[in-house]
């Protein structure tokens, strides 16, 4: 009487992989622009170097000078994971099937949200077998 999706064997490894992919896809990429601190709006004439009574450092584009680039900026990185289509679909079917397993889904009575102390709630969740999830 149940659809075929609910009769799929439960694969916890696929479900975990799919959940991690979803969580990683929510992260935003960050990092410095590759040309940051290296760009100028005008071209400078060639500077002859030493022997002119002025410092050479201010004219350089270095990490230790004012207006220069950063020494070791964070590199731009995309955090998203790609999941194979068949793998993703199997993970969804497996998760749907796991919701029908009464041993895997804990059903709690009403009034648990009225537990005021966090210590009491931690004790209840530990007795239910959620110790690894609480760490």
Report on the structure:
This protein is mostly helical and 135 residues long. Helix content is 33%, strand content 0%. It is built from 4 helices and no strands. The protein has helices at 12-25, 85-100, 118-127, 131-134. The longest helix has 16 residues, at 85-100.
SS-based structural class? mainly alpha
Q: Which percent range fits the helix content?
A: 25-40%
Strand/helix succession: HHHH
Any low-confidence stretches, pLDDT <50, length ≥5? none
Largest sheet: none
What is the averaged pLDDT score? 85
Summary keywords:
0% strand; 4 helices; single chain; mainly alpha
Short description:
The protein is an all-alpha fold and 135 residues long. It is built from four helices and no strands.
Secondary-structure blueprint:
Layout (H helix, E strand, L loop, with lengths): L11 H14 L59 H16 L17 H10 L3 H4 L1
